[in-house]
């Protein structure tokens, strides 16, 4: 749902009632990932997508029905389901979709502002949309399976562990869900988790990305409570960063592709005559500084990609010496194979280990036969996506590898509602 947060946030501000259908689970070759959403307002206006066109018509009708009844519903569409096949899901996968009405209340009485939702769940959803629309880090957890009266209930969790809303039921459910949602927010992950019947985490307990074993999740001091529930956790985090070093024509093309892939793109070059807004109108930031000095000043996370296009040893070597020690997602450097070998030796002389050197993607990009700056930018972007998603870079035609990869380790069954 947070992928269409900006438009939905506007709808809330305008007092428009709507229903939002969110992909909560996928199996097989499904076209969209959990979190993808389609929303329909009371006038019939639709935004977003849950299937790339396969089942949009059926989901549109479910949204209209949810607006009429005011009740959330969980539906599954799959290749083996005759009704689903009839509406067009022919890719062979299965998608589970939660359809949830959001009543903003129009122009309410009783002191509420226009567009302020009347019930707690709607207010929590509206707060989550506002956070995502304004770039605030937050995660929204919603019950998708469990006691019928709790379906759709929502909890908004912030990086400091504070939360808005409640999932209902036993108070300990909120404590456990907050701890687990906070851990997923730290990792920037959107996924479905199950909260089972074991002991709960103590307040403030936090896991690491991918932690999902019983030992790590079961903390002493929890109380026992009822039926397991399934949550969809959607994380809204600031856009990942792409830092392009070297203000050359290839960088200008890469900036455009980086923005298309939703990166926050910075161009850095020590030469002020080249690092200008005129040359890089699409960049979010343009920095005039020595690349290694700028890198030292930045606090980078595991989603950051670094593209070194300076092609000059006096810039490349001190920059890469630092970059290859950082826990970033990708480090690539432009240059011929001869330049690459010379660069590797210079980096060895600085004391970098072979393990650190093996992180370097050089020559940068996938082999597309690229010649122009635009083609080269596409080659670099393709390698970044393959690295991020676990792709192989080989043609899908004739291949027997999965079309959609999932590099995230499953969270699975974690903890309890107590």
Radius of gyration: 24 Å
Annotation, overall tally of beta strands: 17
Q: Estimate the strand proportion.
A: 15-25%
Uncertain regions spanning at least 5 consecutive residues: 107-112, 197-225, 408-418
H/I helix tally: 12
| Helix and strand element order | HEEEHEHEHEEEHEHEEHEEHEHEHHEHE
Category by helix and strand content: alpha/beta
The strand order across the widest sheet is 8-7-6-10-9-17
Given the C-alpha coordinates, what overall shape results? Answer: elongated
| Alpha-carbon distance between the two ends | 27 Å
Helix content: 25-40%
Mean pLDDT: 83
Largest sheet: 6 strands, mixed
Tell me briefly what this model is:
The protein contains 12 helices and 17 strands.
SSE layout and pairings?
Layout lengths: L4 H9 L4 E10 L9 E5 L4 E3 L7 H14 L3 E6 L3 H5 L7 E9 L17 H14 L4 E8 L8 E4 L5 E3 L5 H17 L3 E6 L17 H4 L11 E8 L4 E5 L3 H12 L3 E6 L15 E4 L2 H6 L8 E4 L4 H11 L6 E4 L3 H13 L4 H4 L2 E2 L11 H17 L23 E4 L2
Parallel strand pairs: 9-17, 11-12, 11-14, 12-13, 14-15, 15-16
Antiparallel strand pairs: 1-2, 1-5, 2-3, 4-5, 6-7, 6-10, 7-8, 9-10
